[in-house]
Amino acid sequence: MKYVSTRGDTTERAFCDILLEGLAPDGGLYMPQRYPRVDAATLARWRGLAYADLAFEILSLYIDDIAVTDLCAICRRVYSRHVFGSDAITPLKSLEPGVALVALSNGPTLAFKDMAMQLLGALFEYELGRRGQTLNILGATSGDTGSAAEHAMRGKRGIRVFMLSPQGRMSPFQQAQMFSLQDANIHNLVVEGVFDDCQDIVKAVGNDLAFKRAHRIGTVNSINWARLVAQVVYYFAAYFQATKANGEKVSFAVPSGNFGNICAGHVARMMGLPIERLVCATNENDVLDEFFRSGSYRPRAAAETHETSSPSMDISKASNFERFVYDLLGRDGARVKALFEHGAFTLSPDEFARIAGFGFVSGRSAHADRVATIRDTWARQQVMVDTHTADGLKVARELRRPGETMLVLETALPAKFAATIREALGREPERPPGFEGIENLPKRFTRLPADVQAVKRYIETHVE
Ligand SMILES: *Cc1c(COP(=O)(O)O)cnc(C)c1O
Predict the structure, then answer these.
(1) In the predicted structure, residue 242 carries a pLDDT above the cut 80
(2) CA distance 385 to 410
(3) Are 140 and 203 in contact (CB under 8 A)?
């Protein structure tokens, strides 16, 4: 399998080359040249597989430059009970008839980001070792990505992580998850500013090509194809758990921000997984809902982005969305380039009409919906959901048709977002074993001004 850019650069690249890169050189995102089609016989064979072996089968279709035995060993090490807490890895939790949660948040940092980031950490270590190279990962986080990346990369040979976070903006639990790490290769840089300041610094460093090369700066953001393909696996795993035979169809409801998670569902559907509909759920930051309803994509400025109680979805410019548009427009790289370089765009009526054929529908959820959903699900089913999952569940219940099986992706556990749980239920969220009192552990971080030079100086003095 070779990879090409969404913006028309058709140079063919191998998986391990795009693994260590961010954007394609023309500013596009990497896509496989074609989607491998999974036929009925393959689907039947996969139904009986353990999660790690299913992951190996799916990843093998996209990765042909890692030895089969190595890839298999990586999958078994990553997708284990030891890392994800159960043999099912992503078990289903049924709610009312026709609705179930897909538990994706039982990894080390209690959010679904672990599903892909744990694999990414293992692949980075493998490939850097093979090349005899090192990588310094620079990232910005509002909470979940940073902790998932740090827990995936801690102690890994050849990798250092420099993670910028806005001072005082993460939940106490999220802070503790990051700052309590004592590993020498993890650097928590607390920026005196907001998330956008952190993001701007990462971009400024990325645009300084000389610095970037000299210090081998890399990223772990969600546009990385390896993260996306890792997420394809749980759509298959969930489908097998929810159905008895391969003739049946299911729908997925996905709390969305950067469009990475649901884009993996799109890939699974393109491969032939029997998915009826992909339900894109947004919070008050509803750029994607607006697009699926109207065909108009209007990314918003930071100042127009609301701070909500599902903060990991407070995104107004969905970085993975370009991948779907590329497929929607028949993989016309020149047209995608024109649309995304312009920023905002409106599809023609003919293009808009094609969306239904890809199964996408959408809905929106706001703070009051979130609180009501958390309360109602707790009262009726004694299941506690986090604020992001509540957004997905609200939209799933709203759009579900009679007879439809709706699988809602659980993107985080409630322990990460205690304030809204207290508001909805008047009690503290459940906390899985091993996380008691993490707020009291010693914290390791460095405070820096919101200044590119200060961050560059810090990196220079901490890489050898
Ligand atoms: C990252 C995240 C999301 C959004 O996922 P995307 O892939 O960016 O659409 C939703 N919920 C939680 C808890 C997250 O951490």
Answers:
(1) yes
(2) 8
(3) no
> Which of 220, 312, 362 has most ligand 1 atoms within 8 Å of CB, for mutation?
312
- Those residues with Cβ within 8 angstroms of residue 457's Cβ, 6 or more apart along the chain or in another chain: none
Please give the average per-residue pLDDT across 382-405, as a whole number. Answer: 98
Per-residue tokens: 450:
């919101």
Q: Rounded to an integer, what distance in angstroms lies between the CA atom of residue 428 and that of residue 424?
A: 10
Asked about 113 being catalytic, the answer comes back as yes
**What integer best gives the mean pLDDT of the chain?**
95
Torsion of CA 411, 413, 414, 415, to 10 degrees: -140
Closest atom of ligand 1 to 386 CA is 13
Under CATH, what is the fold of the domain 89-110+225-425? Rossmann fold (3.40.50)
Buried/exposed code over 233-260 (b: 16+ C-beta within 10 A; e: otherwise): bbbbbbbbbbeeebeeebbbbbbbbbbb
Q: What pLDDT shows up at residue 211? A: 94
Point out the ligand 1 atom lying closest to the alpha carbon of residue 261: 7
Q: For residues 396 and 383, give the distance between their C-alpha atoms in angstroms, rounded to a whole number.
A: 16
